Automatic annotation (TrEMBL):
Family: Belongs to the homoserine dehydrogenase family.
Protein species of origin: Acetivibrio mesophilus
Name the UniProt record assigns to this protein: Homoserine dehydrogenase
Known pathway: Amino-acid biosynthesis; L-methionine biosynthesis via de novo pathway; L-homoserine from L-aspartate: step 3/3; Amino-acid biosynthesis; L-threonine biosynthesis; L-threonine from L-aspartate: step 3/5
SUPFAM superfamilies named in the record: ACT-like, Glyceraldehyde-3-phosphate dehydrogenase-like, C-terminal domain, NAD(P)-binding Rossmann-fold domains
ACT domain mapped to chain residues: 350-427
Binding of NADP(+), residues: L9, G10, F11, G12, N13, V14, G15, T16
Binding annotation for NADPH: K105
GO biological process, one term: threonine biosynthetic process
Catalysed reaction, written as an equation: L-homoserine + NADP(+) = L-aspartate 4-semialdehyde + NADPH + H(+)
Known EC number: 1.1.1.3
Pfam families: ACT (PF01842), Homoserine_dh (PF00742), NAD_binding_3 (PF03447)
Binding site for L-homoserine: E190
Length: 427
């Protein structure tokens, strides 16, 4: 039996979960994996802070150098989040011949390739299963189980906060601000929820997944992002009438050398597998040329699910210590010149307008759509006889930029009082 000394950078919710797993499941890990895991040092801001978990005071430190310069510590787990100082600390650990395990999706999305290069140069590993979908092992599936496939599509619910909010809005008819407040009280949403509700969290995660799946460096600046703050109960109700459920989806598609990556609220058919993913759960739908369609489902956040992914990576790092595996890219220094990022992606669209109830309005709007090659699949008009009425369209497949041009013209039409929302539809 070999004992491996580990250090934690940070000790928040996920770090505490990982510590509990090592403490409570350590004997089982020893029996099944042949390795004893010992947390030797934990970097914290305040070593005297009262904590909800019993710890030996001696393992706490507020000096990073005690970890970086300790030759007995071979694996470091980072829980700090954000780019700095986490990046500097990780680089220092890698250069001091320590393998790093992290749940930091922003750092990996923005600097993962750079960090992997430092790890490779120093003969150590960089593992980040916990950075996407918590306890759902999607990164290991891509790296170790689907190598025989060319992945053509990823579509997933990879942010539990927004899925919780949209589930509550859909099932209970409550408005966005009310459910967000509840989610914050329950701990599903942060006091500052911007990263979740504006789609940044999901953007970082789909950046990581698409880079891995397509073996192409996907830059976050090439990802279309839109959050859920504009979604209303009216949108959800009209969508339901049309047979749709709404989710914040992260979508990545590759066709030859063209890649599109986007995050936005999306209507999907109620019988789509992702429509059944409720509350704070995550799911990732993968399409491979050989294996076909696969969906992975589970808890995407929380101390124990994400801690489980961290501990799994620690064990993997131990077993691969003589030969670490690194994600391969066809274009190590950035996006390959021949790789095209598509900013004019194709989708069906749900369009909700408020218009004057008078003859000829529908024909005018249809004319604007037709001008830019947007074909209408269905129309719903409500509340006839009122001065202002809702008018809902679902289009056939249309280019996103053509839709924007059509909506720009429609918004200027005097009989159109408001363009309420435009939501892509995926099937």
């Amino acid at each position: 039996m070999e004992e491996v000394k580990i250090s934690f950078l940070g000790f928040g919710n996920v770090g505490t979960g990982a510590y509990k797993i090592i403490r409570d499941n350590g004997k089982d890990i020893l029996l099944s994996e042949g390795v004893g895991l010992k947390v030797a040092k934990i970097l914290v801001r305040d070593i005297n802070k009262k904590r909800d978990i019993e710890l030996e005071h001696s393992i706490l430190t507020d000096k990073f150098e005690e970890i970086a310069n300790d030759p007995e510590i071979s694996i470091v787990a980072e829980f700090m989040g954000g780019v700095e100082p986490a990046k500097d600390y990780i680089v220092s650990c890698l250069m001091n011949k320590k393998t790093v395990v992290t749940a930091n999706k922003e750092l990996i999305a923005k600097h993962g390739l750079e960090l992997q290069t430092v790890a490779r140069e120093n003969g150590v590993g960089l593992y980040y299963e916990a950075s996407v979908a918590g306890g759902v092992p999607v990164i290991k599936i891509l790296a170790e189980s689907l190598q025989a496939n060319k992945i053509g599509e990823i579509m997933g619910i990879i942010n539990g906060t927004t899925n919780y909010i949209l589930t509550k809005m859909s099932e209970e008819g409550r408005d966005f601000s009310d459910v967000l407040s509840e989610a914050q009280k329950l701990g599903f949403a942060e006091p500052d929820p911007t990263a979740d509700i504006e789609g940044f969290d999901a953007m970082y995660k789909i950046c990581i997944l698409s880079s891995m799946a397509f073996h192409k460096r996907v830059d976050v600046n090439n990802i279309y992002r839109e959050g859920i703050t504009k979604i209303t109960t009216e949108d959800i109700e009209y969508g339901r009438e049309l047979g749709f459920a709404i989710r914040l989806l992260a979508i990545a598609k590759k066709r030859n050398n063209t890649v599109e990556v986007r995050v936005h609220p999306t209507f999907i058919p109620v019988d789509h597998p992702l429509a059944a993913v409720r509350h704070s759960f995550n799911a990732v739908f993968l399409k491979g040329d050989a294996v076909g369609n696969i969906m992975l489902y589970g808890k995407g956040a929380g101390d124990l699910p994400t801690g489980s992914a961290i501990v799994s990576d620690i064990i993997t790092a131990y077993h691969q210590r003589s030969k670490h595996r690194y994600i391969s890219f066809y274009n190590d220094e950035g996006s390959a010149e021949k790789l095209k990022f598509n900013d004019d992606w194709e989708s069906e669209f749900f369009v909700r307008l408020t218009v004057k109830d008078k003859p000829g309005v529908l024909a005018k709007i249809a004319g604007y759509f037709g001008k830019y090659g947007v074909s209408i699949a269905s129309v719903i008009q409500k509340d006839r006889g009122k001065d202002a009425v809702p008018l809902i369209f679902v289009t056939h497949l249309a280019k996103e930029l053509s839709m924007k041009k059509a909506i720009s013209d429609i918004a200027k039409e005097e009989d159109v009082l408001m363009v309420e929302n435009i939501i892509p539809v995926e099937r």
